[in-house]
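Design request, tokens follow.
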């Protein structure tokens, strides 16, 4: 199973299936979570195959809501779901923004998630 599949499964219960990779679709129901892989540092075993032993992808999660309070509440639920995963998770950075065009509120969380393989 890919790390993205694991994340989707872990987060689906948080917002009743409103979890989207890369971008929020137009007309999406709020609150929702958008996630994207930002980078993938890898540890490789050197030798004939040079296999990837483990990776620690950095993901950015954006919690979208109509109000700042709702975005913060969703972020708290997201942190709980991430830390409950059976993988090592490091919560790295967190900040709040307001989307000027839509007026929606968002809370972004960056996390590193340990993963076997690529």
């Amino acid at each position: 199973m890919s790390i993205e599949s694991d994340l989707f499964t872990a987060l689906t219960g948080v917002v009743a299936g409103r979890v989207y990779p890369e971008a929020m679709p137009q007309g999406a129901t709020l609150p929702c979570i958008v996630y994207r892989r930002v980078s993938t540092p890898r540890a490789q075993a050197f030798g004939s195959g040079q296999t990837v032993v483990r990776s620690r992808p950095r993901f950015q999660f954006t919690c979208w809501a109509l109000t700042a309070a709702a975005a913060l509440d969703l972020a708290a639920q997201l942190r709980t779901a991430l830390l409950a995963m059976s993988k090592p998770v490091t919560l790295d950075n967190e900040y709040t923004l307001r989307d000027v065009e839509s007026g929606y509120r968002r809370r972004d969380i960056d996390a590193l998630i340990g993963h076997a393989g690529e």
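Comment from the thread starter after seeing the answer: thanks! The chain has a mean pLDDT of 86.
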